């Protein structure tokens, strides 16, 4: 990670101040300088055009700073995350990012992802059968939205299904570190356990060869290059985090959106052909990447009528950009018939999510099967009682429903 005169205490101070600062911005507007600490400026971009310009700019690096000498729970949490996924594509710029993505992209081909549909449909049916045997309220987050993607990820990685509860703890640790700093030491310990398990799993997959995703990644070769063990560990950790947590949240938030917009629920139930476009609309309307993404600026960046100086930190307000009326008509309205393809729910540019097709497929199957199986499904509590957790991702703590 890059370092400047911007010190450890200032990194922590900036991270802790960003959330409250963003909360007061309620609509897309021109680039805004939030503050300057230790000679480093913090900017926020919220218009769609500005956010896409930032995410496509070569001056915008994903190598955001972490403390070199961590102090306190925030510093330790940042170091734990950096140690686990710092070598993944999520935290790399070209040419390292280009090399690694070229090695990995074959494992996520459209053909391979689409071939997973029958198995995903089978998993969804099994989970819905279990829910149908229940009486009283059901928490769709814990009992459905979490269960489907974690089973898919376990099978993709060739990990025992018995490990899925551990995967849940590890994934939760990554997303809860900054929302629950009092328990940061526990989360850091879980992430260390995760790293150790994945290192052992990579060694096994090296010996077994191709067969599952991790085995295929171990065997892949492009121009005589392979993924290193450290890169495979980082990729597996990223799959557990991004491939599971974001999909869980897409299923849960998408289902909540439908339950609170009964006209759209009925339309989607009677028009299965709209399921694919509905996934795009869910990602735009209330997606997991919310409120946005961090970048650091390596050279002066002209954007939105201003010049953001080198050395600045910039926050890309994805959720607000997805509600920009310059791109989406009547943006605060959920419309499953909308062409929402320009949403930024999977990022933009060279870091566009490699697993986007898989996430949309899982969401389409999961939500489609759910509303088809339980046409009388409704919230078991008032909408205002549903609690959100925002820590890099937007997640529902629970989604209690009555199935019929």
Automatic annotation (TrEMBL):
Entries under Pfam families matching the protein: p450 (PF00067)
One Gene Ontology molecular-function label: monooxygenase activity
UniProt keyword terms in alphabetical order: Heme, Iron, Metal-binding, Monooxygenase, Oxidoreductase
The keyword Oxidoreductase is assigned to this record: yes
InterPro entries in the cross-refs: Cyt_P450 (IPR001128), Cyt_P450_B (IPR002397), Cyt_P450_CS (IPR017972), Cyt_P450_sf (IPR036396)
Family per similarity comment: Belongs to the cytochrome P450 family.
PANTHER family in alphabetical order: CYTOCHROME P450 YJIB-RELATED, P450, PUTATIVE (EUROFUNG)-RELATED
Protein name: Cytochrome P450
């Amino acid at each position: 990670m890059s370092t400047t005169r911007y010190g450890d205490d200032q990194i922590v101070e900036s991270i802790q101040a960003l959330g409250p600062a963003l909360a007061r911005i309620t609509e897309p507007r021109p680039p805004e300088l939030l503050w300057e600490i230790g000679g480093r400026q913090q900017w926020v971009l919220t218009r769609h055009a500005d956010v896409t310009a930032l995410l496509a700019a070569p001056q915008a690096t994903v190598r955001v700073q972490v403390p070199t000498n961590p102090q306190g729970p925030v510093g330790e949490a940042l170091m734990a995350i950096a140690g686990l996924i710092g070598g993944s594509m999520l935290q790399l710029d070209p040419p390292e990012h280009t090399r690694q993505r070229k090695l990995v992209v074959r494992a996520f081909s459209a053909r391979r992802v689409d071939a997973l549909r029958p198995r995903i449909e089978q998993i969804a049916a099994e989970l819905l059968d279990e829910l149908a045997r229940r009486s009283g309220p059901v928490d769709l987050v814990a009992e459905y939205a979490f269960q489907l993607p974690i089973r898919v990820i376990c099978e993709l990685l060739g990990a025992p299904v018995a490990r899925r509860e551990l995967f849940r703890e590890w994934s939760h640790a990554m997303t809860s570190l900054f929302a629950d700093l009092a328990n940061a030491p526990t989360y850091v310990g879980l992430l260390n356990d995760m790293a150790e398990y994945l290192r052992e799993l990579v060694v096994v997959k090296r010996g077994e060869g191709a067969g599952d995703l991790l085995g295929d990644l171990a065997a892949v070769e492009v121009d005589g290059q392979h993924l290193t063990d450290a890169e495979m560990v980082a990729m597996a950790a990223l799959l557990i985090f991004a491939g599971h947590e974001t999909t869980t949240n897409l299923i849960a938030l998408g289902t909540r959106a439908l339950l609170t917009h009964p006209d759209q629920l009925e339309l989607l139930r009677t028009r299965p052909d709209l399921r694919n476009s509905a996934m795009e609309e869910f990602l735009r309307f209330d997606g997991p990447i919310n409120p946005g993404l961090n970048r650091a600026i390596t050279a002066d960046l002209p954007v939105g009528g201003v010049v953001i100086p080198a050395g600045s930190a910039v926050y890309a307000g994805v959720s607000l950009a997805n509600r920009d009326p310059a791109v989406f008509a009547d943006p605060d309205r959920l419309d499953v018939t909308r062409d929402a393809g320009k949403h930024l729910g999977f990022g933009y540019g060279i870091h566009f999510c490699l697993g986007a097709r898989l996430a949309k497929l899982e969401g389409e199957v999961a939500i489609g099967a759910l509303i088809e199986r339980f046409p009388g499904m409704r919230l078991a509590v008032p909408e205002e009682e549903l609690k959100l957790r925002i820590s890099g991702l937007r997640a529902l703590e629970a989604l209690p429903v009555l199935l019929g």
